[in-house]
Amino acid sequence: MPEYAILILPSANRVYTDTAPELVRAELSAFASTLVSASLTGTDVREIGGVDYVTLTTDRPLNDSDIETLSNVSSAYALFEVTGELLRPLPMTPVARFDSDLLTIQKYPGKTNEQFTQLLVNLTVLASRWASDPFGRALHVLDPLCGRGTVLNQAMMYGFHATGIEVAAKDFDAYERFIKTWLRSKRLKHTAQSGVLRRNKVRLGQRLDIEYGATKEEYKAGDTRRLTYYNTDTLRTDELLRPESVDLIATDAPYGVQHGSRAQDDSLARSPYELLAAAIPVWTRVLRPGGAMGISYNTYVLAREKLVDLLDRAGLTVVTGPGYDDLKHRVDHAIVRDVVIARK
Q: What angle do CA 52, 114, 162 make, to 5 degrees?
């Protein structure tokens, strides 16, 4: 059977670099249904020439479309066909509409690894009704706990529309400075408007609305994408977005620090479970039928069965099976992260 080898992209986080091969194996299982000419028959991690590779075997050779799809595996750096003792490089063509610095420039404590963010977005779209052509249309991605916009930036890379919601004003301000500077430095045609966010004459926070084109020609032709960031309570999501207007929800839940939603006394809710119990029904209302919700979380502060129960009670179907059951991995001594994906 044909065999292929994926060289893993190094990460600035050494722990994630060590974890990435097993996560990629799971991700490949999720990607398997998108392969048009071959079926995935197995994956492994093995050393070739002193370097670890993720290997995959298929029942027949991959065609150009298959290779194009696998080019978007989150930590894939290079793809090879294994022929005896030789590795023949295959041309990778990932969906990357912009330079990688959109994902890597921002550096700050607590930033979610951009390779993991891509994996989270990939698994979410592959669980949705758009899995057969996951990157072929301008889907609308929501991150309702968006921090400084790692998911928003990955959505931009894929040519998706993006909406973020975040209660912390400092994160809103930092992201606004970053994305406006980045768009100007890349000379991308765009419009950007920011100001106070109000509903019924009540000040809820701030907002940022950007419309941009990947090229001058696309912008002139009206082939643009929207990026919206609301600095407000995530429990207002269904006040800000129309029902069933979002295709994908991908978010990194709080790891047990102050984050997320405002309590009645204007303090921040500390419990990730309490936050998600209140927020998931709200988020579900704006999710389109056939859409999917992907949530990563710290297993030390939230048990998987409790999160699954919240998703079930919101009327979502948790996705299980190859690619979705073996995603738990260590981030640091206080965080062991897992992912749950559910479909509406």
A: 140
Q: Is 212 helix (H, G, I), strand (E, B) or coil?
A: strand
Q: What is the pLDDT of residue 10?
A: 82
Give the whole-angstrom CA distance, residue 288 versus residue 332: 35
Q: Which pLDDT belongs to residue 50?
A: 87
Helix ranges restricted to H, the chain: 14-31, 64-70, 101-104, 114-126, 150-157, 169-185, 216-220, 237-240, 272-286, 304-313
Rounded distance between C-alpha atoms, residue 104 and residue 153, angstroms:
10
Residue 138 has pLDDT above 60, yes or no: yes
Q: Full-prediction pTM beyond 0.90?
A: yes
Chain-centre distance of CA 232, in angstroms? 21
- Compute the distance between CA of residue 100 and CA of residue 153 in angstroms, rounded to an integer: 10
* Alpha carbon separation from 236 to 27, 110, 307 (Å, rounded): 32, 25, 21
Q: What are phi and psi of 205, to 5 degrees?
A: 155, -135
SS3 47: strand
Letter for the amino acid at 73? Answer: V
DSSP secondary structure, 56-89, as one string = EEESS---HHHHHHHTT-TTEEEEEEEETTEEEE
pLDDT in tens, 271-305: 899 999 999 999 999 999 999 999 999 999 999 99
Pairing of strands 76-83, 3-8: antiparallel
Measured between alpha carbons, how far is 91 from 316 in angstroms, rounded to an integer?
38
- The CA-CA-CA angle for residues 281, 145, 211, to 5°, reads 105
Write the CB contacts of 329 (distance below 8 Å, at least 6 apart in sequence).
16, 19, 22, 23, 336, 337, 338
- In angstroms, rounded to a whole number, what is the distance separating the alpha carbons of residues 269 and 267? 6
- pLDDT tens, position by position, 158-209: 999 999 999 999 999 999 999 999 999 999 999 999 999 998 888 999 999 9
